[in-house]
Amino acid sequence: MRKKIYLYVGLISFFCIIFQIIFYFGYIGKKQNKLQETRIESNDREDKKAMSVDSNSQVVLKPNARFLCDYYDQSTKKNWQEEGMIADVFIGWSRKEIQDYLRDYLKTPPKEEEEKGLKGYELVSFSSDSIQMQKIYESKAKYQFLLVVENNEVVIYDEKWENQYEKTGITTERLSEKEKNKLMKGIYVKDEKELYSILEDYSS
What we know:
Number of domains: 3
Number of helices: 5
Strand content: 25-35%
Shape: elongated
């Protein structure tokens, strides 16, 4: 009787061990298959991404492509647009070539662009048929006069500091240190109304 019990217990233990072994190797196999599938999907994504980047780098501007440029003046808060056909010189250019051109243009802008206060020039969108750009300006205020100190006297010049407009007869002795420091650098004045207001303050 005891021998039969031992035999049954031994068989049950044996089958339990076999079942655990089968389950373990089955689990490991499934995990390895899943990891392999993940690697394959990842490689496919990388290949597609590389193909996408490579194909985008081949996009160039076609003949008859159009351009749209948005302008914005930070000083006046005004914005306007200009559109038309791209110049022939840009036909066949890629996105990177356009971006490099705009960056170099901003570093050394033409004199008229400097005078307008050009601050930014960037590519907004790019395709073979059209490009969109944005120019940002910060227009400089126009001044009529410049106040400076000569021989301890407040003197009025034109805005370019070329021609003397008038001597005021106001000496720096009656001015605060703050105003003296301003005058040493030069105070730009927009118009006659502002000029008379400043001189009145200095005289009081």
